[in-house]
Amino acid sequence: MTHDLRLLAPALATWITAATTIGLPPAITCGLASLAALYLLAPRRPSITGRSSGPGTTALASTTGALAGPSSAAPAAAAGQSGGGVGRAAGGSAGRRRLVGVVLVCAAASAAVVALRTAAVDTGPVRDLARHGRFAVAEAVVTADPQSRPGNGRPMIIVRARMETVTRAKVRVPVLLIAVDPGWLRLLPSQRVRLRGRFTTPRGADLLAAVVIVRGPPAVLGPPSLMQRGAERVRARLRAAVARLPPDQRGVLPGMIVGDTSGLDPTLAEDFQTAGLTHLLVVSGANLAIVTGAVLGLCRLAGLGRRRAPPVAVLAVVVFVVIVRPEPSVLRAAVMGLIGLLAMFTGRSRQGLPALAAAILLLVLADPELARSYGFALSVLATAGLLVLGPPWRESLARHLPGPVADALAVAVAAEVAVAPVLVMLSGEVGVVSVFANLLAAPAVAPATLLGALAAVTASVCLPLARVIAWPAGLAAGWIIWVARTAAALPYATIPWTNGGLGALTLLMAAGAAVLVLRSRRLRLVVAAALTGVLVAVVAMRVTARGWPPPGWQMVTCDVGQGDAIVLATAPGQAVVVDTGPEPAPVDRCLRRLHIRDVPLLVLTHPHADHINGTSGVMHGRTVHGVLTTPRTSGREARLTRGVSARPAQAGQQWRIGDLTLSVLAPVAAGPALTSNDDGTTINNASLVLVARKPGFSALLAGDVEIEAQRALENTVPQVQVLKVPHHGSPSQDLGFLAAAHASISLISVGEDNDYGHPSPVTVSLLRRLNTQVHRTDQEGDIAIARTATGLTTIPHR
């Protein structure tokens, strides 16, 4: 199939120009736009060689032929015979010049839009306040749903807004609000609020006037717009319709229908990502195509003709976007759908790539920030893959496979191949099982989407009937959930790869090499032989290698990134867990690998996010009997433990579970309760410090205590075999405290390439001078301490 590529270059010029000029000073961006305009307006000198376009060349040729006379008949005839070639050359040259002109026009327009937006956010009272880091009272309108993100001790709430008034001046510029009060999560787009906060300059190249660190709850000045109230009612009624479904289904189904993932378990979200099914939780072109197709089908059943059905579908698209919220992928899908419906309405044949290019042009000019959005890039690339790669691959597969299987496989592979470079840039992983997971999930996507959408519409009128409709939709979502969990649990579901631009480049090079191999029979044989040898070696290593968890394991430091999560074995399938890391999914996976289903005691050493935010991951599918917290608790731990009784531990207390004894060393004094105003050091020094003992095993678990608390404990630290180094190996360490433990093994739980510089080289050097083995989770993954006939040994599991 031949693709119409005429709009592709202007679209890419618009996209690239916006992406590269965002963040530049407005004067430079305006200068670039002016240069493009001057080039377009510069006069062109006509050429006598016939390569210039326009009537001058034709007139010159005619005049020359007339003046030649009879004696020039043969040359004239020859000229006539070659005239077609000259004309085609002239036409091609003119076409190229027109294309260059259109590209420059689009680039100039893109640069001009970015310059105007940059000038708007770079000047005025909001940016002046940000430059000086001042506090001010302001009024703003919320423009997107508030998002909760992990923070230092308490979750941060990120709110995109449009500043309307500041220091009594009227403004209209985009800002980013960062708050901690949970009242901000209850806001809806279009609500006007009053706030007080500190204005700071944005660090990145976003088109923002300021980032505002907000103090306290929002002062709501008015209700959301009628449209947003209606949209929220639909979303709320859908949540009510699915409320009686199993927890996973009622978390996934609203995400598939309207992009509402507020009830989605973070561990399940991680499984969807590993399985390559995240796109099902983000409303995009597939959802819009299903809904639009259903609306058009109903229009045909109702007797609406070809001319009257598209306007109804357009209305459905607009309503759908309002309910879902105008996220980048939704906007792209909506514009694509509207262009296609316009083509249907005017009777012209729809062409995929021109529609995609038009969508890029319109969206980037309307919102230049999309040019730097990974979500937008993934959406565009997936669509391009379906349009360009899908049809020929479908034809090739159809020669060997049944039609429906060929269609599904071509669609899944084309989309995965197209987005793979960007996914590698983001995650540093290559999905192996994603194609097969998408094939297995595909049959359930349309039923779940259509029935879920019908339930959402019905819920506004009759909730009991909506609950009945939601039940089969939940079954379809349940199949997708099973596929996601099963695929994510497979070994080597993802393969580590270099991230960033280098990762994308190497992946493209690998893809090019794969194409060359597939085209050569000899290379195919060589590569097949090599892969067979590698497969045999891997299988042999798996058969001969020790399993996980290793026999006789006493303790495992889980690799949860920049945070702590420690597991102490008490019985088969049972363990004490100390801290839970920053996210639920990593600690849940660690416990699954250890086959832990029962947690008699969960210890949360102090209320920092990197130690407690993964609590739901520990509780996912497991029984937690009790929770211990620092006596200087902030109370947030109790909110994370879903009703399991949490009580503060006191210095000197002991717990005995099986043959494991836990003793509390610190904090010695209870002190006042922690608040959000306490600095990080105060909260760290309130950490529980524990000593764990079993026959042939002892460990000091020091939480995040810093140098002040360590010095207070110097004389009470017992000798142990294993030391969990405080605060991820930060430089705030007391030599006397570390030396008093006399540990032969030191474990540092730390995230790879973290922003804090942990572990400090000074701390690592200090530990090595104390003749202790230093092991790090960022380099070794999960680290098990196992008891052998000769003592303790460390066994990494990456």
From TrEMBL:
Main location as per UniProt: membrane
Superkingdom to which the source organism belongs: Bacteria
Single GO biological process annotation from the record: establishment of competence for transformation
Pfam family, one: Lactamase_B
Keywords: Cell membrane, Membrane, Transmembrane, Transmembrane helix
PANTHER family per record: DNA INTERNALIZATION/COMPETENCE PROTEIN COMEC/REC2, RECOMBINATION PROTEIN 2
Protein name: DNA internalization-related competence protein ComEC/Rec2
